[in-house]
UniProtKB/TrEMBL annotation:
It comes from Morus notabilis. SUPFAM superfamilies: F-box domain (SSF81383), RNI-like (SSF52047). Residues 1-32 are annotated as: Disordered. This is F-box domain-containing protein. It comes from the Eukaryota. The lineage of its organism: Eukaryota, Viridiplantae, Streptophyta, Embryophyta, Tracheophyta. Gene3D superfamilies: Ribonuclease Inhibitor. GO terms for biological process: SCF-dependent proteasomal ubiquitin-dependent protein catabolic process. Signal peptide: none annotated. GO terms for cellular component: SCF ubiquitin ligase complex. Residues 101-144 form the F-box domain.
Length: 459
């Protein structure tokens, strides 16, 4: 061992792969012999190795010699460890190439069908899988959904960089759930690289509705499905009429729209629902300020007549009279393609005169007649019995004293956006109006029941 530690040849660095191949050297046989002798003692007990090394140190003439000996031992141990790891990887790679029968192109094809988490696991398995998993085509669908926040900006950045330049042509579906510290600029920057996006789902991110829709409108012109759930129910009042107009004009292929938990005024919602000519699915669950007036005369117009699913569950300001008007319109022949309607409300519907006055039964709603005329419709109208929930005044008193908004319970849904049923446990942020009196844009128009109302949409 002493000869090996002091051997000058043992201190030579292992050439890196970029250097010239090693040339056979007769002196290498001496090193090989010494290394072989050392490895023959690998089964020696740690205690015997310690005692032997201590004897070598004691035999050193000076303190500097002892320091040099220790340093050489550390370097030799590190070199042996790295050499063993490299050889193990080389053998494992050779074994994997023999055991895995698929060629790289088919392996990449298989990996492109995996979800994002499974793809990352596969990439960490071996160098061969890692090389295949780095192919940009494996990242055409990036799904970073998680119930518990585990994904941060670094993970999103890694996924996008792995997708490379091909991201613009490949990425079709992007789902982002509960990403810590992801702000408006980060999200907008990511969306700017996704012009071919068809499906965008955002849940639990602290980002603004208006800025997000501006980015979608400017960069994602092919989008077909948009699902956006607010992290703070009822507190995001950022949406503007012009933003709605731009989204309608720039994203004409949208067929599924879900904006849940935002403060949405009827005239803005009407711009969206009436403007998208291909819209089939709408979900405004837990949205604040919607009274239902946006639905008037939509069933026989170019926008809204193709609706198949309309979900207005737990909309605090949804009025009983507007729901009744909607059902009568359906009975009269409007909304011919409608298959699913949900107006359930855990706080009851608002009365026409005062939204503090809640309606807990459906006596004024022609449900029986609706089901007789349209038996093909799945109609949900679940209301609590009167007095079974906390009083409205008490609820708002508690909200004034607290800024905490409970997160919505995530509802199950299909990937194509065919069904979303919200069972929100979120508290509402409120003011004392109906929700449609404040924040009106300059272009605000009160909608009458006449069929020739002013159309906000650009020609």
């Amino acid at each position: 061992m002493d000869a090996l530690l002091h051997s000058p040849s043992s201190m030579a660095k292992r050439p890196c792969p970029s250097q010239n191949p090693r040339i056979p050297n007769p002196n290498h046989s001496d090193t090989d012999h010494l290394l072989h002798s050392l490895l023959r003692h690998s089964d020696s007990s740690p205690l015997s190795v310690d005692l032997s090394f201590d004897r070598l140190l004691d035999s050193s003439a000076s303190d500097s010699d002892q320091t040099l000996l220790i340093d050489r031992a550390l370097k030799l141990g590190s070199a042996l460890l790295e050499a063993a790891k490299r050889s193990a990887r080389k053998r494992a790679s050779k074994h994997n190439s023999l055991a895995w029968v698929l060629p790289p192109d088919l392996t990449i094809k298989v990996f492109s069908m995996l979800d994002t988490q499974s793809l990352c696991y596969a990439a960490a398995t071996c160098s061969m899988f890692n090389k295949c998993a780095m192919d940009p085509s494996c990242y055409s669908n990036i799904d970073l959904t998680t119930v518990v926040p585990k994904v941060n900006n670094a993970v999103v950045s890694t996924m996008i960089h792995r997708a490379g330049r091909a991201l613009q042509a490949l990425l079709r579906r992007l789902h982002l759930y509960n990403i810590e510290r992801m702000d408006n600029s980060s999200l907008c920057g990511a969306l700017s690289a996704c012009p071919s996006l068809l499906d965008l789902e955002i849940v639990g991110l602290h980002v603004e509705l208006r800025q997000t829709l501006v980015s979608v409108s400017a960069k994602c012109h092919l989008i077909e499905r948009l699902f956006f759930e607010s992290s703070k129910t009822g507190r995001d009042d950022s949406l503007k009429s012009q933003t709605c107009l731009d989204l309608v004009n720039n994203c004409p292929n949208l067929t599924s729209l879900a904006l849940r938990g935002f403060k949405l005024h009827d005239y803005k919602v009407r711009i969206l629902v009436k403007g998208f000519r291909k819209l089939k699915y709408v979900d405004f669950s837990t949205s604040y300020s919607i009274s239902g007036t946006f639905i008037r005369n939509l069933g026989n117009s170019m926008g809204g007549n193709l609706l198949e699913v309309l979900i207005l569950r737990d909309c605090m300001h949804l009025k009983e009279v507007e729901v009744s008007r909607l059902l009568k319109a359906i009975i009269s022949g409007d909304f011919q393609f409608l298959k699913h309607l949900d107006i359930s409300n855990r706080e009851g519907l608002a009365s026409e005169s005062d939204w503090y006055d809640r309606c807990y039964n459906s006596s004024a709603i022609p449900i029986k007649q609706l089901l007789e005329e349209r038996p093909d419709i799945c109609f949900l109208a679940e209301f609590p019995s009167e007095g079974s929930y906390i009083e409205i005044d008490q609820m708002f008193d508690s909200e004034i004293n607290s800024d905490i908004s409970l997160p919505s319970q995530m509802s199950s849904h299909t990937s194509d956006g065919s069904m979303f049923l919200s069972f929100s446990e979120s508290s509402y942020n409120s003011d004392h109006g109906s929700g449609n009196e404040d924040g009106r844009d300059a272009g605000y128009v009160i909608y009458e029941e006449s069929s020739d109302e002013v159309d906000f949409l650009a020609v």
